């Protein structure tokens, strides 16, 4: 195994003395998808010991916080986002002792650990759900149980309480013969939604969260947390229930209506989040919480993350990663700089005076940005595109998130056949859209999966050029749970680690800038050239210190927008170039010529 133990950053660099913001204002978070990070026992699945063995690499990269996707006990229907015991580790990943060791080893290196918290739903194998199947059990009301539609035989087609479809395909209602009723699941049928209206549910969740905080974790990434409050009428009914006009709700091409608007940012969200803050975090220090927030607008983000409202520290908004889909996730449309800028600008503007932003392009649900909006067809284009999108993201105001392998420029999987996919979303979507509803051709669906499917982010971490990429031993007993990308021979950590010009070297610089440059960390954000079709430009200002960020997000050269040229006047000196996706000399020439090369980005000290 390559030795990545080097240059651990001193604590002083991580502190944020320059600004009145909390510690995480200049922190960088790194997301690990444990199943795909590092396998140590040859079963083809990453594990906790594997993560511990790679902490020196993360310390070298310079990140401050590690977010772990779920490692709790789980039947793994949705790779751990279906939890059957919140207070245990799944044997696939290790033991509670392994978790304690990971915490201690991370803390020793100044790294914090944030765990995923999946409490919109549990697994259907969780003891709470099993108890809830009995109407006389104290847990009877812990989930969204509903009788069949009046006049219909329970369990027969059309008897579902309403026409909601699951985001993972099929009806959002599952009939349980034992209870004789249906339960709501926005996600898979093995992920029943918890009933947050019931105070006992909330208490149990907070108790569990306190247990983890007391064990020494540093906060949570809260899975679809803004979907825990549902919109019900004054009788507690969901839309279409009880024989009301079910057909009034628009039905999509797959034959279902969407629960989304009734389940996102519901009426009691602020109340629940504030209660959680009081019950779990009051009196604690040094933690951070980030909520996954599909359907939350930039304005609502401001409110929820404003410290005076005592809810969450930051949220993941999704409007900016929806720019290449229309109607359905599987109906993809081309990337346009303008659309990305409009969405990100709205997010930045909304938190100018209060609240905070998180910054991300990649996670375990999103394809790799370099394949999605960049160009991964050859080495040079790939590296330039990875740097351009990295620079753009990391120079915004907010807390940046790096998803494992993003710092190497890892690409989409480029799977060509359905049996290479593992994700239930992909497999269900294919079945439903191609075989059942027949609303998409097989070719078009395979193309959409290859572009936007979640498994693109889930292929094993590429550590080196060996068979299985160093993710697991070359002679491991089991194959990796999902195919290793063949491009690991070229794109891997061992190859990039010592090269300052690699994508990895570039990410180290981005991270260091956030630690060391108060303007990057917290300076005001102001948009320039709002209409440019190729170049995304803005300034960051902190007192009299101003930096300019200008990035060409296309594979063609681009004229410097007028507004940017004006600001730069006679051109710039090499010493003003803080960072470039090419190099400083190239940047100076491009500015002088008034033209940026393809994927050229420069950060300039004004
Ligand atoms: C979130 C997770 C995703 C999961 C879903 C259901 O969106 O990020 O991976 O499938 O919630 O838990
Ligand atoms: Ca393993």
UniProtKB/TrEMBL annotation:
Provide the Glycosyl hydrolase family 13 catalytic domain boundaries: 31-458
* Highest taxon of source: Bacteria
Keywords assigned by UniProt, alphabetized: Glycosidase, Hydrolase
**Could you tell me which Gene3D superfamilies the record lists for this protein?**
Glycosidases, Golgi alpha-mannosidase II, Oligo-1,6-glucosidase, Domain 2
Q: InterPro entries in the record, alphabetically?
A: GH, GH13_cat_dom, Glyco_hydro_b, Malt_amylase-like_C, O16G_dom_2
The reply on keyword Hydrolase is yes
Q: Kindly state a single biological-process term from the GO annotations of this entry.
A: oligosaccharide catabolic process
GO MF, one annotated term: alpha-amylase activity
Family membership: Belongs to the glycosyl hydrolase 13 family.
Instruction: Enumerate the NCBIfam families for this protein.
Output: PRK10933.1
Its recorded name reads Alpha-glucosidase
Q: Please give the organism.
A: Bifidobacterium catenulatum subsp. kashiwanohense
């Amino acid at each position: 195994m390559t030795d990545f133990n080097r240059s651990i950053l001193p604590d002083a660099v991580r502190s944020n003395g320059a600004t009145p913001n909390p510690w995480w204002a200049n922190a960088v978070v790194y997301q690990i998808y444990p199943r795909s990070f590092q396998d140590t026992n040859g079963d083809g699945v990453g594990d906790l010991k594997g993560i511990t063995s790679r902490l020196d690499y993360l310390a070298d990269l310079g990140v401050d916080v590690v977010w772990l996707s779920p490692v709790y006990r789980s039947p793994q229907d949705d790779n751990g986002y279906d939890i059957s015991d919140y207070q245990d580790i799944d044997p696939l990943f290790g033991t509670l002792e392994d978790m304690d060791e990971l915490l201690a080893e991370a803390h020793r290196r100044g790294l914090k650990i944030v765990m995923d918290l999946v409490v919109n739903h549990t697994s259907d194998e969780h003891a709470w759900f099993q108890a809830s199947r009995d109407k006389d059990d104290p847990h009877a009301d812990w989930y969204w149980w509903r009788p069949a539609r009046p006049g219909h035989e329970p369990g027969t087609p059309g008897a579902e309480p309403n026409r909601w479809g699951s985001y993972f395909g099929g009806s959002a209602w599952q009939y349980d013969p034992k209870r004789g009723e249906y339960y709501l699941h926005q996600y898979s049928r093995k992920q029943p939604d918890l009933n947050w209206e019931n105070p006992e549910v909330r208490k149990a969740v907070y108790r569990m969260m306190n247990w983890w905080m007391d064990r020494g974790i540093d906060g949570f990434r809260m899975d679809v947390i803004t979907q825990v409050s549902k919109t019900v009428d004054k009788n507690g009914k969901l839309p279409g229930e009880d024989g009301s006009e079910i057909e009034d709700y628009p039905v999509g091409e797959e034959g279902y209506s969407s629960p989304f608007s009734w389940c996102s940012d519901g009426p009691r969200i602020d109340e629940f989040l504030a209660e959680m803050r009081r019950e779990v975090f009051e009196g604690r220090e040094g933690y951070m919480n980030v909520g996954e927030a599909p359907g939350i607008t930039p304005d609502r983000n401001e409110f929820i993350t404003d410290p005076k409202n005592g809810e969450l520290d930051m949220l993941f908004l999704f409007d900016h990663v929806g720019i290449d889909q229309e109607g359905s996730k599987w109906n993809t449309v081309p990337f346009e700089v303008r659309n990305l800028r409009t969405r990100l600008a709205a997010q930045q503007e909304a938190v100018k005076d209060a609240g905070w932003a998180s910054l991300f392009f990649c996670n375990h649900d999103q394809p790799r940005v370099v394949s999605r909006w960049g160009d991964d067809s050859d080495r040079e284009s790939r590296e330039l595109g990875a740097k351009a999108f990295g620079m753009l993201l990391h120079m915004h105001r907010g807390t940046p998130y790096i998803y494992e392998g993003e710092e190497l420029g890892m690409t989409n999987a480029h799977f060509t056949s359905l049996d290479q996919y593992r994700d239930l979303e992909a497999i269900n979507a294919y079945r439903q859209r191609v075989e059942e509803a027949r609303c998409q051709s097989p070719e078009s669906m395979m193309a959409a999966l290859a572009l936007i499917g979640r498994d693109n982010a889930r292929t094993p971490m590429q550590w080196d050029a060996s068979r299985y990429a160093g993710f697991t031993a070359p002679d491991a007993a089991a194959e990796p749970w999902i195919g290793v990308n063949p491009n690991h021979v070229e794109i891997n950590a061992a190859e990039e680690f010592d090269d300052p010009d690699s994508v990895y070297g570039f990410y180290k610089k981005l991270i260091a800038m956030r630690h060391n440059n108060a303007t990057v960390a917290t300076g005001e954000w102001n948009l320039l050239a709002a209409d440019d079709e190729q170049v995304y430009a803005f300034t960051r200002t902190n007192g009299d210190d101003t930096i300019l960020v200008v990035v060409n997000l296309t594979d063609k050269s681009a004229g410097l927008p007028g507004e940017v040229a004006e600001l730069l006047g006679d051109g710039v000196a090499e010493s003003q170039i803080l960072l470039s996706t090419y190099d400083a000399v190239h940047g100076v020439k491009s500015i002088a010529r008034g033209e940026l090369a393809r994927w050229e980005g420069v950060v300039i000290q004004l």
